[in-house]
Structure formats: C-alpha cells, structure tokens
Inverse folding.
C-alpha cells in the first residue's frame, strides 16, 4: 500500500531529525555560552577552550535564519495559523451518559471538531482514520466510575501526544445562568506557562484552535498554578464602557503527566516528559 509506505518513510525521516537534534542543541548551547562570555569580556572557561576557534567561526557565520536552532517541533506545527485545525473527538469505549454529555460540551470548545462514536475501534484504527481524512489532532476523553478523569491530545500525523488527568469537572448545566455559546473562534489566555515545558504544553493546546476574529466574544483561559491547569470558558458583552463576563462552562482542572514523541497508538514511542509520580520504578528497585 503506497500510503503506508509513504507514512513509514516520513516517520523514519521525522525520527532521524529528532535523533540529531540533541547533538545540534548541545553545539548551539556552547555557542550561546561562548558569545555571552565574549560579550561580557570574561576569560574563556576550560571546557570551551578546545573548540573556541571553531565555535567563533560558526558564531561569525550565523545569520538571523541560522542563529536559532530549528527543531522537529517546528515541522510538527508548520501549518498552524495557516490552515485551521481539524479535530476528531472521541471517548473511551462504552462511555457513560455523563462522559457523552461532557464530550458534547468539549466539542463546543474546539471549532472544526467532528465528534465520533468510539464503538469497537482500537487506537490504531482511530489514528488511521485521522490520517486518511487529513485531521490535525485526535482528542480522547476517559472516565472513572462515570466521572471524566482523562484527556489525551494526539497530534497528527506523527505526534506529539500529551496525556492529562482531569479533576473537578463541572458541566455547563451545573453552572448557574450559563449563557448560550456561539460557534465563534475563541480568544485564548495562557497564564504562567513560562518554562520550556510550559511553552511545549501551551503550543500543544494552542494549536487545537484556529486564529480568532477580533470581534469574537468568547475567551478560553488556561491558568497554570504549580502544574495544575485551571480551564475556564467565558463569553463577554460590552455594556457602554463596562464589560460583562459570564462563565459558559464547562470548567475543570488539568494536570499533564506524560508527553510522547509519537501518536497515541505507538506504545514504543519515546517519552519526552513523564511526571515523576507516574513513573514506574519497580525495575530499579529489583
């Protein structure tokens, strides 16, 4: 099958790019350090003296395009902002009525989303459907004893995949006087995503949404506090000089516990990030 061969070839190319990134990143960091030391007029430290001449030549030859290291992350989201995302939303198998309702409400969050009944489909089939239909992301909702407790975002066609736990989920109908929600593309507010991991999570979430129009009256807030992300959905209206804000729901807290360099169906994909208390240490203890 030509498509499978092409996907396998592109996947190999993607993994090869990632394999050489660490080496290029290390060189880039040494160049950055040397440049800072030269600019500050400080003596060259011993660990940089051996490569000083070669690094100085590279710094001299760098221009605006080569000074910043381009990574596979740049190609993961290369069409972001150019083409609107196309998302497939589904649930774990045999969802409860509450998870089905939660999926409906999540669908209103993400424009250009197709909600699909999971049925008996396995992960490989879900990913294959997304790739065949040129979808940008697969979002899967999970539950425990009828309570939504997990959200997976898998970027197509090769990843990354982010795994979040969910807590304190409040549905729209449990929010007093929740206003009706339009299909307008929302404005996004990200607070306190300042670390490299924070930037990574922000990008994974941000690129699920198309670019909003200025007149849009919807806002989605992702507020990070000690690695717990509070999500809130509001609509607002101008009344003269004042702005009235109303919570539309749903609301919940998210916590990232893993990022995989691959799609959700790839069990052997490398982990880019794992929360420590989710890491299995049994092998180390033996």
């Amino acid at each position: 099958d030509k498509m499978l061969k092409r996907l396998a070839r592109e996947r190999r190319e993607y993994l090869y790019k990632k394999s050489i990134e660490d080496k290029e990143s290390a060189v880039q960091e040494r160049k950055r350090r040397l440049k800072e030391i030269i600019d500050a007029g400080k003596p060259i430290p011993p660990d940089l003296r051996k490569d000083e001449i070669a690094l100085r030549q590279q710094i001299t030859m760098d221009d605006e395009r080569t000074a910043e290291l381009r990574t596979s992350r740049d190609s993961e989201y290369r069409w972001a902002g150019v083409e609107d995302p196309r998302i497939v939303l589904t649930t774990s198998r045999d969802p409860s009525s509450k998870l089905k309702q939660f999926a409906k409400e999540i669908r209103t969050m993400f424009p250009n989303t197709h909600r699909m009944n999971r049925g008996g489909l396995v992960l490989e089939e879900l990913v294959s459907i997304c790739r065949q239909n040129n979808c940008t992301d697969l979002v899967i909702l999970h539950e425990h004893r009828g309570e939504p407790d997990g959200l997976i975002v898998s970027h197509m066609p090769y990843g990354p995949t982010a795994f979040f736990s969910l807590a304190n989920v409040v549905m729209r109908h449990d929010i007093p006087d929740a206003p009706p929600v339009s299909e307008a593309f929302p404005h996004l507010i990200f607070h306190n995503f300042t670390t490299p991991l924070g930037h990574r999570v922000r990008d994974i979430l941000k690129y699920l949404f198309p670019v909003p129009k200025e007149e849009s009256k919807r806002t989605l807030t992702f507020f990070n506090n000690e690695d717990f992300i509070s999500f809130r959905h509001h609509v607002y209206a101008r009344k003269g000089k004042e702005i009235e804000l109303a919570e539309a729901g749903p609301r919940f807290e998210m916590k990232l516990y893993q990022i995989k360099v691959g799609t959700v169906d790839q069990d052997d994909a490398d982990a880019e990030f794992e929360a420590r208390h989710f890491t299995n240490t049994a092998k180390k203890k033996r």
